[in-house]
Amino acid sequence: MPHFRSKPLVLTGAGFLLLTFLKSLGLSQGSPTARVAVGLCFLALAGLSLALLYRAGYKRDQLLIMLLPIGLSLFLRALLLDHATLDYQNFLSHWVAHFRENGGFSALKDPVGNYNVPYLYMLAFLSYLPIPDLYGIKLFSILFDVLLAWGGMRLARRLSEKSFQPLLTFSSLLLLPTVILNGACWGQCDSVWSSLCLLALVYALEKRPIPSLTFLALAFSFKLQAIFIIPLWCALWLAGRIKFHQLFVFPGVFLLSALPALLSGKPMGDVLSVYIDQAGDSVSWNTINYNSPSVFALLPYHAEPTPWLPKLAIAFAFLFMLGILSLLFFRRRFAEDVSLVLAGTALSLGIPFLLPYMHERYFFLGGILLTVLACCLPSLTPAAVGAELASLGGYHAYLMKRYVMVLSLFGIMWTQLVEGLFMLAAIVITVTTLYRSLYPKQALL
Questions:
Q1: Which of 73, 107, 173, 434 holds its CA 20 to 30 A away from the CA of 345?
Q2: What is the pTM for the complete model shown?
């Protein structure tokens, strides 16, 4: 039995799981049987969370206490499950309907949506299920919310010897507002590619390059935004942690991920051009910034910048990347696990901060990595909080269709200005901490 003092925590966690199931029964869509199935999915996700913690070596008492953050996080997600955003109404729902009306997986050959094929596999699979599409799409993302927390916990175990910090990381990632809103409210899939990036980074730190590059390629096959952290593996190769011939695992896995679609008749050109088309769609809009806390938050929202400004920003982003990689290369003798994670965080935050045409969700991975670091290095907590608040401002603008503060100064929205400054501060703190980790005091003597 758990310790007497921990019993209220255990009972509260179990109560949240019960409320989650009851909330599922009261959802607005689907048959009673479908709603029961949704509730059972939530309970299965709780079981998966506990199973992953048990596999990590945590004991019964610790698992029972972890029922509280697990149960609370699932209950909060169940509360948001009925919310349908414009992204779902205008795009995702139509894509699933196309698969349902055209034979499921056999419709993979069709030009459906603007996501790469691994995400389309999920939509095609959902077209066979009797539960409402809205819930299926969100449950898929919530599944990877759990895997994201697990990957973060594994990463924290590499960075800290204290037993409570990995559990703190697991709980923090499950309850992080941007993680909850991204999948359970918005129906986005950023937890999918981000969780794969975390696992790729864990295997890289464990000096297991093949699974590391495999997960990295899978992350990239889901979302182009994985490219922000991919340069870190270039540094690992330059530092001798990855052999050159092992790098070919990446394109091999990427092509294998597209194989089912190719076998169904989808042209290779459609697979290879999806990311180019996504980039073109962003540039074709009438704004240089999409509610993101980037450097362009300092400009008026509908400003039309001179043609050279986006190109200059791209050049600065490239130079920032080269600076981080050069620092890692020349100080590779001091590049321990913490330094590598800091470098990955700096890349994941700094590159989208400098690039034009960024969306509010593109800082997702950087915020996750900074949260993991803050759980292990409390001095980084202000940076993690600042990055989270900066991203939340953009989420609020999209989900609520208005800014937190509607005041403007010279055409600049106060909300965007504060978000940009918060993100800039988080990046500066991260890069400074990285520099100090690579230049320890004994190295300066």
A1: 73
A2: 0.93
